[in-house]
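Hi everyone, sorry if this is the wrong subforum. Our group has a chain we'd like a structural model of before ordering constructs, and none of us has done structure prediction before. Sequence below.
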Amino acid sequence: MEKPIKTGLLSFGMSGKIFHSPFQNAHDGFDLTAVVERSEKKAKNVYPYIKSYDCIDELLEDQNIELVVVNTPNTTHFEYAMKCLRAGKHVLMEKPFTVTSNEARQLFQEANRLRLKILPYQNRRYDSDCISVKNIIDSGKLGQLVEVHIRYDRFRNTISPKIFKEMPIPGSGLMYDLGPHLLDQAISLFGRPLRWSKTLGLFRKNSQVDDYVHFHLEFPQGLNVFLTASLMVIDAQPGFVIHGTKGSFIKQRADSQEKQLLEGMSPKNPKFGIEEAGKEGILTTLAEDGSFFQEKIPSEKSSYLNLYDQVFQCIRKEKLFPVTEAQIIQQLEILEG
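Answer:
Right subforum, don't worry. Here is the predicted structure as tokens:
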């Protein structure tokens, strides 16, 4: 095994605590070394050996750290990632990668100039529901795809205490919160759209930012893909609805990883990433005799450890990272458009 990658986190909030540190701790290729905690020092309660710095500059001065996870508020991503690169660190960037496509291009150019990696953390590609959908599409059982709906439904009708998410500043609102997940899943499954449009809405009382977003993407061969995220859905709809010339596939948003992580389960636990019973996808296809055949499709076990393994392979072995620069630029152009 190659030398582990010593890694630093720029924040130990929800993202650092749930989506990053458990996987860095569980993967032999990473050494969770340091974190930035500006006020309360909580990381040592979970990782007694970790260094806790008061500011980003202190962490960047640590010569042992090779990789920095930029998991700070959206508007800081460009500035902090650039500082990390110029300090000689590889970067793993939380979504949204940046607020604008121009900022993303500058970061990719700087990383290439310095021979460093800047990698997008698009973890929802590694959810069991998305993996299940990809497997069904790749199987050809649906025939030529005609119409696809991908959704994230929530019901949160009050204003979040996280000011950076609720103020009308660049990168705030639901579009920049859940939009990157929806767009990344669509682009990873279907490629580059020919055309797109979007609709935003504000429905919560006193909301200053969008709490509803809808994208319509048009792809070759007449495929229409509809992406929706809303904070005003009490009865959540299926996360994926796919119709083709030979059948349909319906899949609930059912990935268990976030829930298990919040409950304290380690990614090394054999039960980690296994969906609950009853969350199987429903595949309906046309039989040779003209009748319809319906079956339940269990999802494969999933883990964001696979994403971290690809980060390791990219940095240590120079293997291609699956989330490409072109895909990120395309995503941001749609968010901007």
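For your construct planning: The first strand starts at residue 5 and ends at 9. The radius of gyration is 20 Å.
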